[in-house]
Amino acid sequence: MGDLLDLVFEAHGGLDEWRKVACIDLRLTMRGEAAIKRGGGLKDVQVRIDTRRRRTLITPYPAPGRRGLFADGRVTIETDAGVPVSGLAEPRQSFAGYEVFTPWSPEQFLYFVGYALNNYLTMPFLLAENDVTCEELAPHEEHGETWRVLKATFPAGLHVHCPVQTFYFNSQGYLVRNDYAPEVSGGGAASHYTYDHRFFDDFLFPTHRRVVRRDETGRSLLSAPSIFVLDIGQVVVTRG
After folding, report:
1. Where is 239: in which H helix or E strand?
2. Which end of the chain is more exposed for a tag (fewer CB within 10 A), N or C?
3. In this structure, is the dihedral angle defined by the CA atoms of residues 183, 119, 28 and 57, taken in order, positive or negative?
4. In whole angstroms, what is the distance from residue 156 CA to residue 162 CA?
5. Which tens digit of pLDDT belongs to each residue from 54-91?
6. pTM, entire model
7. What's the farthest any 2 CA atoms get from each other in the chain?
8. pLDDT level of residue 10 (50, 70, 90 thresholds)
9. Helix, strand or coil for residue 12?
10. Where does residue 92 fall: left (phi above 0), alpha (psi -120 to 50 degrees), or beta otherwise?
């Protein structure tokens, strides 16, 4: 497994260099079936990811003149001047009993998007964090390619979709798929595909992402409507 992680980290820009990164800024549009039903999606918003404090700032959110902050597991909607308007101190608990497509409040959608984007933009380096355990599984055949597969178990208290997830890497070491079952949406199984990988400031980021459901056999429903579609641009990595 160590050789796989070495390949993956090097392909994405190098673990030693990543540890110098303080934040990531990007433009984001999020759409798709669940995005519309949950919170209306996001259109050309500015996102800042703090890689060391697990903090995500989205501007504007949920409307012009407001911004959304995920930090330390909490969410706050603020004015542009930073004055709190509303929030949730324990947002994860607010989803108890929720099922797929149960309506969410703006604060709940902010929590989901806030922690998810932090995970997506810091992956695969998040796998090197303390108490994250990884195990390589049998290779997977898809789209005429052979992908190496890694099962990751995340520690309690880390805000992720679910504790156990599966990651798929192509022959170059690029992350191409991630399987999970988000607890906050009732645990519906999903496959998250990444496309159009590009380098920004020497780090590799997928600029197009598509999330689809998986059936009871684990097969990705690629011909079905997308749950989420993410388009990412103008990525700036700041070291410090």
Report:
1. strand 228-239
2. C
3. positive
4. 10
5. 999 999 999 999 999 999 899 999 999 999 999 999 99
6. 0.95
7. 52
8. very high
9. coil
10. alpha
Determine contact, residues 153/101, Cβ cutoff 8 Å.
no
Q: Which of 177, 180, 239 is nearest to 206 (CA)?
A: 177
* pLDDT confidence tier of residue 29, bands split at 50, 70 and 90: very high
Mean pLDDT over 159-165 rounds to: 97
Tell me the C-alpha to C-alpha distance, in Å, between residue 26 and each of 46, 95, 188.
Answer: 6, 28, 28
How long a stretch of residues is the chain? 240
Is the separation of the CB atoms in 186 and 99 below 8 Å? yes
Above 90 in pLDDT, residue 98?
no
Give yes or no for residue 100 having a pLDDT over 80.
Answer: no
Cα-flanking dihedrals φ and ψ of residue 160, to 5°? -135, 170
Beta bridge partners of 57: 48, 69
Q: Which helix (H) or strand (E) holds 34?
A: helix 33-38
Distant-in-sequence, close-in-space partners of 33: CB < 8 Å, separation ≥ 6? 225, 226, 227, 228
Both structure tokens of 103: 């309506």
* Unique residue bearing structure tokens 């992956």: 123
